[in-house]
Design a protein that fits this description.
This protein has helices spanning 3-15, 20-29, 51-54, 56-72, 90-99, 103-108, 118-127, 211-227, 273-281, 293-299, 302-311, 315-329, and strands spanning 18-19, 79-84, 109-114, 135-138, 149-154, 163-168, 171-179, 185-192, 206-209, 229-238, 248-251, 254-256, 266-268, 271-272, 286-292, 342-348. It is an alpha/beta fold and 362 residues long. The strands form three sheets. Strands 2, 3, 4, 5, 10, 14, 15 and 16 form an eight-stranded mixed β-sheet that branches. Strands 1, 6, 7, 8 and 9 form a five-stranded antiparallel β-sheet that branches. Strand 3 (109-114), helix 7 (118-127) and strand 4 form a beta-alpha-beta unit. The longest helix is centred in the first third of the chain and has 17 residues, at 56-72. It is globular and about 60 Å long. The protein binds S-adenosyl-L-homocysteine. S-adenosyl-L-homocysteine binds at residues 28, 36, 42, 50, 52-53, 85-87, 91, 114-117, 120, 154-156, 159.
């Protein structure tokens, strides 16, 4: 039994069953044994691969988008550029490299990386050692100074803990993680909650609520609505809030039981983009999209970028570029391509004109 599983079993033995939210939070962020705290999970040798690790094209296009958003905000002289959950720092390195094409942009931004993992912060410090701008680290977005705000979040919201509610014979209750007869971790339901959460559902149905993500979105969108700026969220997720749960655990590129090895596998959910959009709009901010990652990247010119890079590439690099283009923007099998499973959504100041990637299809 992993050390964290033992610790969670002890917590449950003392306090009773815990929420899925607390379970996820312990599994991912326990200071000693949490999944992200102890390792660099990214890359082919790790547990999963993200878009910026597939190809520089992804970060370059996100960089162009951010500089364009800064221009659309009136090129503010003093702005905050924030990345939530920067992983290895690869995306920010690509964004800042593209930012060099616009000196006024680079000179106007303070860079803030929001990261809870000391292991990944160390990797980010190495990746960004040559950064053209000084970089600040914080474990919490709320410490970011006020002012026009530009936020990037790639595969971040999926890592935030969610709550589950399950419909039983007498109504809805929160789904909890408890202990079975032999001390193993199991899902169960405990106290009853408001029975009118969803009147229509069948018994056994589950609702997943990303309360932590929605609160963070409200905080960020409220600041964008007040101070100006824009946020780009890219993640795997769905367009309409619906019944069902999406909690999944991934270890070495394969799915495993989410209760089997807390702290040893990546625990995520699919992001409810409709809920994030509602949270953002409730502050008066404007929401663009969500659109598929494929549509977003194609509108920003990923095909042209791949072609330009191919012109001065070796035959082998050319094959890699074609594969990366297909993987990032292709809309086939979601196990092989990200283009349709992943969505892009932007939150902007209500007065800002629409940004590229989100123009209506012609
Ligand atoms: N954006 C990166 C990494 C995605 S993995 C990429 O696209 O490659 C998720 C990242 O979020 C990791 O850096 C992880 O340590 C960080 N993270 C997870 N939960 C967090 C939290 N509550 N606050 C800040 N960072 C968090």
């Amino acid at each position: 039994m992993s050390a964290l599983r033992e610790e969670i079993a002890t917590i449950i033995a003392h306090e009773g069953p815990i929420s899925v939210e607390r379970y996820m939070s312990l599994a991912l962020s326990h200071p000693r044994y949490g999944y992200y705290m102890t390792r660099d999970p990214l890359g082919s040798a790790g547990d999963f691969v993200t878009a910026p690790e597939i190809s520089q094209m992804f970060g370059e296009l996100v960089g162009l988008w951010i500089t364009e958003a800064w221009r659309a905000a009136g090129s503010p002289k003093h702005a905050q550029l924030v990345e939530l959950g920067p992983g290895r720092g690869t995306l920010m390195a690509d964004v800042l490299r593209v930012g060099r094409v616009s000196t006024p942009f680079l000179e106007s931004i303070d860079v803030h990386l929001i990261e809870t993992s000391p292991t990944l912060e160390a990797v980010q410090r190495r990746t960004l050692a040559q950064s053209p701008r000084p970089i600040n680290w914080s474990g919490d977005f709320s410490h970011t100074p006020r002012g026009p705000l530009f936020v990037i979040a790639n595969e971040f919201f999926d890592a935030l803990p969610v709550r589950h509610f399950v419909k039983g014979a007498r109504g809805w209750s929160e789904r909890l993680v408890g202990l079975d007869q032999r001390g193993g971790l199991v899902f169960g339901a405990a106290y009853e909650i408001e029975p009118d959460l969803r009147a229509q559902a069948q018994q056994g149905a589950i609702i997943e609520v990303g309360a932590i993500g929605q609160r963070l979105m409200v905080d960020i969108a409220a600041r964008i609505a007040a101070d100006g700026g824009a946020m780009l969220v890219i993640d795997y997720g769905y367009l309409e809030t619906s019944l069902g749960e999406t909690l999944q655990a991934v270890k070495r590129h394969a799915y495993v039981d989410p209760l089997a090895e807390p702290g040893e596998a990546d625990l995520t959910t699919h992001v409810d983009f409709a809920a994030l959009a509602r949270a953002a709009k409730s502050t008066g901010a404007k929401v663009l999209g969500p659109v598929t990652q494929g549509a977003f990247l194609r509108q920003l010119g990923i095909a042209q970028r791949a072609e330009a890079l191919s012109r001065r590439a070796t035959p082998e690099q050319r094959t890699d570029l074609a594969a990366a283009l297909q993987r990032l923007a292709g809309e086939g099998d979601p196990r092989k391509t990200m283009g349709s499973l992943f969505k892009a959504m932007a939150v902007t100041h209500p007065g800002m004109y629409d940004l590229p990637g989100f123009y209506p299809a012609r």
